Amino acid sequence: MKATHKRLRMLGIILVGVGMAVFLAGCGNPMVLDPKGQIADIQKEMIWISIILCAIIIVPVLGIWIYISVRYRDKPDNKAPYEPNWSHSTKLEVIWWGIPIIVVGVLGYFTVVATYDLIKPPKATANVEPLTIEVTSMDWKWLFQYPDQDIATVNYLNIPENTPIQFVLTSNTAMNSFWVPQLGGMMYTMPGMAMRLWLQAEGPGEYLGMGANFSGSEFAKMHFKVKSMPQNEFDAWVAKSQDEPAKLTRETYAKLAVKGTVPIQTFGQNEPTLFASIVVKNGGHHGISIRGSDPVKSNQQSSGVKSEAETKEVSGSQQPEQNQ
């Protein structure tokens, strides 16, 4: 009987090992661990710091658990009575409460420092004028507006390398999440809100972008390509896009907003107040006015939603204020 149990345990260990080997063989380098920008680098560091600090607790606990399970396991021929002797140890209490408290404190410190770095433009390119892109998630597509270039795209993004990109994000339907893993973390897109996210690519390349929040039957198709290019190539692409005959008007947007998937599109002209109207229409009763780099609160107090005629455009040089 003992020999049979031993063989079964060995077989179980072998099967688990083979299963893990097969599972891990299909895993390439995770995109979040292959950063292509300063912001993504910060987040990669935070991932490794979190893994190391958690391992300080998890590895010893699992090791002790395995040791105790094996050393003090009950055996079929064990005749000893079960008579536990409960006792208190102040030293052990300090160890198993003190270490996690220290780990959480250290992790919290690094998290706060990184969070404040991530809500601002990257320090390395602080002297570079940022590019603003207004992002609207829909069922099931992405609309990207370049207000300062007066163009718009659907389901693809072009950005200049080594330039801070300020994304101002909202949703026209269900809440979603905008994510380009190799350039930085994700940010929710929510109806009636204009959220902000800074990203930056350090060199030319193509990166996968996606919607990371389930939003319906075609959710899996809400992905897009982000292409980073030198500034001169970006300027040439902007000039070419401005010559596109298609215009992003309110009528065009109404057709885009219908549920369904669409191919990539480029619009040679962008309705300047469209993004602000999307935010207000979906509950953003803040009297906001959006132009250039940011959502800002109106200087005038209003208890209701402003009309389009009352909505004023503000320059991209004004400091953004996050909607509350």
From TrEMBL:
Residues 24-122 form the Cytochrome oxidase subunit II transmembrane region profile domain. PROSITE patterns: COX2_CUA, COX2_TM, PROKAR_LIPOPROTEIN. Keywords: Cell membrane, Electron transport, Membrane, Oxidoreductase, Respiratory chain, Signal, Transmembrane, Transmembrane helix, Transport. Residues 128-240 form the Cytochrome oxidase subunit II copper A binding domain. Pfam families: COX2. Residues 288-324 are annotated as: Disordered. Catalyzes quinol oxidation with the concomitant reduction of oxygen to water. Subunit II transfers the electrons from a quinol to the binuclear center of the catalytic subunit I. This is Quinol oxidase subunit 2. It comes from Paenibacillus herberti.
